[in-house]
Design goal:
alpha+beta, 4-stranded antiparallel sheet, homodimer, 9-stranded mixed sheet, 415 residues, 37% helix, 13 helices
């Protein structure tokens, strides 16, 4: 029997889960390990059991349902995302990846397909970072230390309380590492949270890389002076350097580093009076690119522009790192797999980068991984107005199904 | 007997007053109507009486010493400045104008010169704005209303307490208006508080105008967005518009409006996170010029540049006035008088604008007025490091003396 996904079943599940933690205006608020997240986890467990399957949970609280292969020594293909949301988020971010994966598993089970690998669908803990971003996937790949937990955003007590609500503990979290040599790879479907697909009228965006992020505090130092009596040619105005850099950085990135992005999201000025020339300006610089080599080149270019802007106006410049996340290139064979899968599902596709973080950035470190996007209305996300049309939700499941079948074919065992 | 100023006497007075309210590093702190200001006033009154002259005080607390003319129906020539200082100011700002004027009065008295006008030397109350800038001179010209007092910086209680310390009251302040038809004009000597004279190696700067000041709050409105997922060409980044304006305004004023000046002294950004595109930037804009017509042209140009910067980046712009002070052009005949006086004293001179406010800006409204500057070291003022060399202090008195004598000659009565 040819397997096919059931869009009505998928939409019914998406509808049901949206009742848990519903906020005004169709939003969702299910911070990880909160009472509402616990309710969403229970709801997922109930759906799994109703389907006659088993739900399991690891020490990190990651929930899994597995369709087992009868093949001896079968490895596992992992599909997933997360059911937690930001405080005033939407109905699709993360949820679509878990439930479309589950719909694929049910479709394969219903069609009695024998896969050459186990198929595991997973709900990762705290992707959104209520306590720490990509917490569950970090724990699963063994990229979480006791030091990381000590520095956790909400504090250790909050973490222990949250893990307690799902019957786990910080100790269990630290021992949730899996053996990824037993895995075939990882697939994640997600809404785009951007407008590239919508603008290009394309169904599927195949992610080639999850961008790296580098951030810096830049401090331009000049000299406070009377804004009347100090002639302009004699001023050392810190804001002149800062504003020059903003303009230069914008133009330089648009010209040379697209689709890379740069942002100056904070600015503080001293001493701060109408009639005093600014003596100091501190700015937050953040830039992103998916290619590690280009990200490095962006850094060189932007910090050089900053130094030039300081020099041009006779200012000092202090550069202080404020964190970095390495780019996570997706597996090229997996990227091509999704492209073929989209083609088989009769869907248009294009390659793009993910400019936001996802669990796939952790999985990419240990197993062949890929994500793909479906469009969401106006690119709006982390917002109650987040919307993904039913046909796009169905596309997510269709592409996942085709990708699973392709992987099964490739491994030489026709399903 | 030819009158001549006594530089030693002037320097001794400058030295003595610097002991009242002395701060670390040769600074002075004598906020208007504070206990220390009262001590400085008492010191001045004592010097006047020691010289065998009378001290008078009007309802605004302005202290005067007058050398009376024997001519029937003689009008009055006013020379002055202020003895109050900013909280951590220097020894010369204001003080030099009062004491060099007093030295001239003593020199004329000692030489038994008969002037065709009374010569009044005045210490104006609160030029620096502890309670309200140019308070005493505003009251003297009748430019102070009950509404002004209600909005006073330190509050009415503070004002009444301060005036009480010198035996005056708010009511007396409001009735301190003088009849300026009885005045010949007003002269004020001051340190430059800038570097134009020092740079040009010129002794005397004849002020052609005290600049007008206009200030605005500008608010650029864009759209908050994820600094990763929103492609740069689709952003409405409020900081792009604000930084573009800062660069444009700087270049435009340097090219077209020198010696006019522009400053952006405050900036605030919303929402303010590394990874969020700025949705709103509020900036303080201030610009100055001494010519009313050019100040108007600067306003047109700068607000047009602001609108263009907003439009260029798809932003909204809100413009809100934050106050204005009209330019105070000096009297041209008085400007020429000071130039001749400087020449007679064998001093080089140049014309310039005053980019800070002074009592002369009030007097200019009611009587022919002029100020002139002597250099101060590195242009530093409102700072304990403020320094005016003894020869420059003496130049102030010499030019005042020559100006008084020239005015006396002009009025047809040789002294």
């Amino acid at each position: 029997m040819t397997p096919g996904i059931n869009p009505e079943r998928l939409m019914a599940m998406l509808e049901q889960q949206a009742a848990i933690g519903a906020t005004e205006g169709f939003g969702l608020a299910r911070p990880a390990l909160s009472e509402l997240d616990v309710q969403a986890r229970r709801w997922f467990a109930d759906r799994v059991r109703e389907s006659g399957l088993e739900l399991s949970m690891d020490g990190a609280g990651n929930q899994s349902v597995t369709l087992f292969s009868e093949k001896p020594d079968a490895k596992t293909l992992l599909i997933g995302s997360h059911l937690d949301t930001v405080p005033n988020g939407g109905r699709y971010d993360g949820v679509l990846g878990v439930l479309s994966g589950f719909e694929v598993l049910l479709a394969l089970r219903d069609a009695q397909i024998q896969l050459p690998f186990h198929l595991e669908v997973i709900n990762f803990t705290d992707e959104e970072g209520t306590l720490r971003g990509v917490l569950g996937s970090s724990a699963a790949i063994g990229h979480l230390s006791a030091e990381d937990l000590a520095a956790i955003r909400g504090g250790m007590a909050e973490l222990e309380a949250g893990l307690g609500r799902i019957g786990s503990s910080a100790d269990a979290l630290l021992h949730a590492r899996r053996d990824f040599s037993r895995y075939v790879g990882y697939l994640e479907a997600h809404i785009e949270q951007g407008t590239r697909l919508e603008t290009a009228h394309v169904d599927i965006g195949v992610v080639t890389s999850i961008v790296g992020v580098r951030s810096y505090w830049l401090t331009f130092g000049g000299e406070a002076a009377h804004a009347g009596t100090r002639p302009m040619p004699d001023r050392k105005d810190a804001l002149w350097g800062a504003s020059h850099l903003i303009q230069q950085a914008r133009e330089h990135v648009l010209l040379n580093f697209q689709p890379g992005v740069v942002n100056f999201g904070r600015i503080a000025l001293e001493p701060g009076a109408f009639n005093i020339v600014p003596a100091q300006v501190q700015m937050a610089l953040e830039f992103r690119h998916g290619d590690p080599v280009i990200l490095e080149a962006m850094e060189d270019a932007l910090l050089t522009l900053a130094r030039q802007s300081a020099e041009m106006f006779g200012l000092t410049l202090e550069i202080r790192s404020a964190g970095l996340i390495a780019p996570a290139p997706m597996d090229l064979a997996m990227v091509e797999l999704i492209e073929v899968a989209a083609k088989r599902a009769d869907l248009s596709h294009m390659r793009l980068m993910s400019f936001a973080g996802h669990d796939a950035q952790m999985l990419a470190r240990v197993t062949p991984s890929v994500m793909f996007f479906v469009p969401c209305l106006d690119g709006v996300s982390h917002n109650p107005a987040e919307y993904c049309a039913p046909e796009d939700c169905a596309h997510a499941a269709q592409v996942l199904l085709e990708a699973v079948l392709l992987l099964a074919e490739k491994s030489g065992d026709e399903p």
